[in-house]
Amino acid sequence: MSETYNIAIDGPAGAGKSTIARAVAAKLGFVYVDTGALYRAMAVCFLRKGISQDDEAQIAAACRDIQIDIRYEDGAQQVFLNGENVTGLIREEEVGKMASASSVYAPVRRKLLNLQRNLAQTANVIMDGRDIGTCVLPDAQTKIYLTASSHVRALRRYRELAEKGLTCNLQEIEQDIIERDYRDMHREIAPLKQAEDAVYVDTSDMTVAQVIDCIIQAARERGLKEN
Q: ∠54-92-87 over CA atoms, to 5°?
């Protein structure tokens, strides 16, 4: 089998990684792997079991009974937790907070590492998360560090929630993002940081189209041969 081409996108919460990665994948004909969705699926399990985000022992024990799978239906990633499609549940705020808190634990990360690497070995993938270029796919041909100011990221989230008719507070959202950034960047295992060979992309003043073009151009410069 010919070598696959991998694009790794890392960055903080709310930077637009999923939106951008999904669009780039569609343009290039790549498989999009939303790794955050995998951690969120595990978080669904922890919440259902009533486990505290601070109880590392119970989280580690629960990991042994978790099976996470991803399948693609009409090109969209579907996430399965022990055979149940939980794709519709994983974007809830409570799930996101649990995913961020529980992802600091080694058993959680080990559970998903092999799944992510196997996907990258079998297909051209674009994968986004917090430690893709630094840990999961250190040999990815193209690495991107995608970010934006905490205020811009909070404003995006605020508008997203408001469009759904949900009551929310911009200041609270930004504070939650700042706290999540700190937790992601200071965790002991695989902290969020820019890989040495990653392209830094600040999307604060960029359109989605501009960001997509920037990433595709970076991949071309790093050997991507398009069909």
A: 105
